[in-house]
């Protein structure tokens, strides 16, 4: 425990207060009716809805469809930011599984919107994995097991992040780093000294990839857990760097999928709903 505490102090002045779990409030969708859905086919035999995506009200019980701004995109209702249904990264097309805003709970301010993307053929392969044969949304939401099984596969998993307000690289970097440090602290009792040293080195490398600059609202970050276990980072189509550490790549994504302290509970619920539709809905697989 002393070793872990010492290592954390070396990397960042993160106080116990900063490590505290925050409960994120969910902004209710302004829509009160459910629009019709236009259905179209996407690569890999799956079917997507160009009419909208499933998001959640503050009660997290009733899915609400938000209409797309134009064909091929969906709009996150609380920020009005549009996300493409299909995203091209490294010559590969990935489809949107789910999205939602990252909100500062005590102020009710949307910081950014994130969406999770995967290749359609990789989504289809999930049914061959243990625990994914018959996707159980509640199981996915209640435990880390299914998400970790997904991230251990040689598959690309992409997180697209779009700021909902002007900010800077340092502010976003520090938020990402706090999430990684929290994940490390939670797992430190299972790490050897060498494993902990390698993780700290990877987090330090991750921090160093962010240049000193302002970030405009509506610009795009793309973080990809690659099939070979690295974390590739891009901003506005420019390569920020790649951290070749499997722990960091998996745990960056787990910052959005873990059931205890997710960066966005709205996004986590929507991602689970997206997997449920893609893997279980008969209409989606026809």
TrEMBL record:
Annotated keywords: Membrane, Transmembrane, Transmembrane helix
Pfam families: Chalcone_2 (PF16035)
GO molecular function, one term: intramolecular lyase activity
Chalcone isomerase domain segment(s): 95-272
Transmembrane segments: 37-56, 99-118
UniProt keyword Oxidoreductase, yes or no: no
Family matches, as InterPro entries: Chalcone_isomerase (IPR016087), Chalcone_isomerase_3-sand (IPR016088), Chalcone_isomerase_bundle_sf (IPR016089), Chalcone_isomerase_sf (IPR036298)
Keyword Disulfide bond (UniProt): no
The protein, known as: Chalcone isomerase domain-containing protein
Native organism: Lichtheimia ramosa
């Amino acid at each position: 425990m002393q070793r872990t505490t010492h290592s954390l102090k070396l990397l960042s002045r993160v106080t116990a207060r900063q490590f505290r779990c925050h409960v994120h409030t969910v902004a209710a969708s302004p829509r009160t009716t459910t629009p019709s859905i236009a259905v179209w086919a996407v690569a890999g035999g799956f079917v997507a809805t160009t009419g909208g995506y499933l998001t959640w009200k503050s009660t997290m019980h009733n899915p609400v469809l938000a209409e797309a701004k134009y064909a091929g995109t969906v709009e996150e209702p609380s920020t009005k930011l549009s996300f493409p249904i299909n995203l091209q990264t490294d010559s590969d097309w990935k489809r949107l599984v789910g999205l939602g805003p990252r909100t500062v709970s005590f102020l009710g301010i949307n910081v950014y919107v994130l969406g999770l993307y995967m290749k359609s053929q990789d989504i289809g392969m999930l049914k061959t994995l243990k625990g994914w044969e018959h996707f159980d949304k509640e199981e996915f939401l209640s435990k880390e097991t299914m998400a970790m099984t997904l991230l251990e596969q040689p598959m690309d998993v992409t997180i697209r992040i779009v700021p909902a307000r002007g900010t800077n690289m340092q502010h976003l970097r520090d938020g990402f780093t706090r999430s990684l440090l929290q994940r490390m602290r939670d797992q430190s009792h299972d790490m050897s000294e060498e494993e902990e040293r390698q993780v700290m080195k990877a987090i330090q490398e991750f921090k160093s990839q962010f240049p000193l600059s302002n970030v405009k609202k509506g610009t795009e970050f793309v973080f990809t857990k690659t099939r070979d276990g690295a974390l590739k980072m891009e901003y506005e189509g420019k390569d920020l760097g790649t951290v070749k550490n499997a722990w960091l790549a998996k745990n960056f994504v787990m910052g959005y999928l873990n059931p205890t302290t997710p960066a966005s509970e709205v996004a986590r619920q929507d991602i689970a709903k997206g997997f449920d539709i893609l893997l279980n809905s008969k209409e989606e697989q026809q």
